[in-house]
Amino acid sequence: MKFEKMHGLGNDFILVDGFKEKLPVDLHNIATALCDRHFGIGADGLMVVLPSEKADIRMRIINSDGSEAEMCGNGIRCFAKFVHDAGYVHTDEFSVETMAGIMTPRLVRDKAIITGVRVDMGEPALERSAVPMLGPAGQAVNEPLEAGDTLFYVTALLMGVPHCVIFVDDVSKVELEKYGPLLEKHPLFPRKTNVHFLEVINDSEIKMRVWERGAGITLACGTGACASLVAAVLNKKTGRKAKIHLPGGMLEIEWAVNNHVYMTGPAEKVFCGEVNTNKE
């Protein structure tokens, strides 16, 4: 099976062209094997390009643990560049079907060179039941939640996938390996959740560290950066447009007046190759 390896700010993916390649029946287990960084190609997830009856093209993404994700912000930028370069779309703006709905990426150019991708990520869902997060009706903003031996104050929302955002004074001091899995699998989140720790630098800049649902620590999370800006606005910590500094680089996020969140960032090809997906 031929593939292409891509990354968005170090959040890396294996892309497979479902139009040309014969996909394995057991795609979820294959994804886990291929994403293994010692015995496979190595990636945070596997993405498959497929035809769509609802949009210009369809994206499937499977996390490194074999679970399927509704959406991926860094992933959709890589996906957008891949399908454009492959000739499946012929305009700079097009529609992509995901399990979280129709997304609209637009290629960003410097003359003829593609320098990044801006994506309309849709509207955030703020009601607790939409996340979903157990508890009384309403929004979960700066709400106390105990995990392990620590009391956190969390803001939860749905940005295609569930997110739990926590503000701290210094993100470098967060024990992400300890608290990430505890919060991801906390009983209040029946579908689990992505976990983000934020350090607000000023009104338009945020430092962020990520524990992704189904992948663990990653260098960046696009949907998480979007959710984090929304959480910062809800907690009156920033304006509606900010630069989000992640370990892998920077994303520009805007929560516009039309209630849509827009993400702009890079998408880079690393290499392409062919892998044997037979189990023997």
Q: Average pLDDT value?
A: 96
Structural class: alpha+beta
Shape: globular
β-sheet strand percentage? 35-45%
Low-confidence stretches: none
Distance between the termini: 15 Å
* Rg: 18 Å
How many distinct beta strands?
Answer: 18
Indicate the percent of residues in helices. Answer: 10-25%
- How would you sum up the major sheet? 18 strands, mixed
In short:
The protein is of the alpha+beta class and 280 residues long. The chain has helices at 27-35, 73-85, 176-184, 222-234, and strands at residues 2-8, 11-17, 45-50, 57-63, 68-69, 96-98, 101-110, 113-120, 140-147, 150-159, 161-167, 194-202, 205-212, 216-218, 241-246, 249-255, 261-265, 268-274.
Key phrases:
280 residues; alpha+beta; 18-stranded mixed β-sheet; 4 helices; 18 strands; 16% helix; globular
Topology at a glance:
Elements: E1 2-8, E2 11-17, H1 27-35, E3 45-50, E4 57-63, E5 68-69, H2 73-85, E6 96-98, E7 101-110, E8 113-120, E9 140-147, E10 150-159, E11 161-167, H3 176-184, E12 194-202, E13 205-212, E14 216-218, H4 222-234, E15 241-246, E16 249-255, E17 261-265, E18 268-274
Parallel strand pairs: 2-3, 4-6, 11-12, 13-15
Antiparallel strand pairs: 1-2, 1-18, 3-4, 4-5, 6-7, 7-8, 8-17, 9-10, 10-11, 12-13, 13-14, 15-16, 16-17
